[in-house]
Here is the input.
Amino acid sequence: MLVASVQAAEPVSNAVKNQVADSMSYVDKLINFFIDRGPSLIVAVLIYIVGLYIARFIRDVAMRMMRRANYDHTVVSFVSQIIYYGVLAIVLLTALNSAGFPTTSLLAAFGALGLAIGLSLQSNLSNFASGLLILIFKPFKAGDVITVGSVTGTVRSIQFMNTTIVTKEMRTVFIPNSMLTSQQVTNATYQDTRVVPFVFDIGYDNDHHKAIDVIREVMENDERIVNREMVEIGISEFGDNSVRIAAYPVVENRNYMQVFYDTMSSVKDSFDEENIDIPYPQRVVHIQRSGLDENAKPLSDMSQYVK
Here is the structure.
């Protein structure tokens, strides 16, 4: 029995010895790994820690610069985050490369993934990039009155994919940002002041000098007009039915529409007081009597035939 017990214990002891030997081998390998790669790992950790502070520093500097340049809060927040994570990605790749990890295949995989995403979201990325350009270079901002194609309205908000415009009829129009960077955009409120173009029609029988003096007097009495002492006024065209007088007063943006309405009303009242006619379209019709029946009656009253 003793011999059998000893023989049975021998395989167990051998298995324990093998496990201990394997464990010691793993420990030796781990120790050798840290000995061989320890300095590289320490350098990688230091690179990551230092790079983290550098990324935060660059982000803060970019935020301060954009705030001093009066960029929109959305731009400051979004661009600063892009800068931060971009620098952090470079730091992480540098740390992994210092630790001995192969980064070439990783970069290739990310590049292929980025290409696939870019091809599938090409139009959206175009709108996104255009929105970023609008927010950075600010050709217009929220509250400006712009014209894009046949749409004119006030910019309510600038998103990364589209821009929201509210028209005078209170219709909300969503325009993709790529359209705003690929065609002409007219910003009526980009400048502090704005010219109100007027054209007044008077009859050919009226004294145009008197009409010009009346228009000039109306504008000189309006303190909202910046150049009221030297408004540009003169005959712009000899039309089919009228003499056309143009005037170009300069007003602040906030007074544009009210000055337009008030001036039109005041000029109409002044023209009425001075008996200056504002003609309506007319057409002269000549009727030649030829080849008519001898028994036909003459047309004594042409008003019933010509309207």
User: Anything to note?
Assistant: Residues 234 and 282 are 24 Å apart (CA to CA). The beta strands are 145-148, 151-158, 162-167, 172-176, 185-187, 193-195, 198-202, 232-238, 243-248, 250-252. The longest strand covers residues 151-158. The chain has three domains: 18-119, 139-187, 192-307.
